[in-house]
Amino acid sequence: MSTDIGSNGAPEPETTITLTEEGEWWVATDEATGVTSQGKTRTEALENLDEAVAGYNGEGREPTDAELRDLGVDPEKNVSGESLPEEFQ
């Protein structure tokens, strides 16, 4: 059983995670949400899963303009919308 404490001071619910090795990758799946992530190491896969589950639960944040530029994305052209880009329709 998990003894982790959540941000509100209450114990977090028990979580089942499946961790498998697939070739050169470790794959981690949160069984409650179905969210899956991967990494080159077990630790990396679990850290990536934590980030992915946080995003799934709405705990993410929009990237800053500086973070977008670091990734080669022009913030002025990064616009959220209801429709998919033409390439994905």
Automatic annotation (TrEMBL):
Skewed-composition ranges (Basic and acidic residues): 59-79
A Pfam family: DUF7387
SUPFAM superfamilies in the cross-refs: TTHA1013/TTHA0281-like
InterPro entries documented for this protein: DUF7387 (IPR055811), TTHA1013/TTHA0281-like (IPR035069)
Region described as Disordered: spans on this chain: 1-42, 54-89
Organism superkingdom: Archaea
The name this protein goes by in its record: Type II toxin-antitoxin system HicB family antitoxin
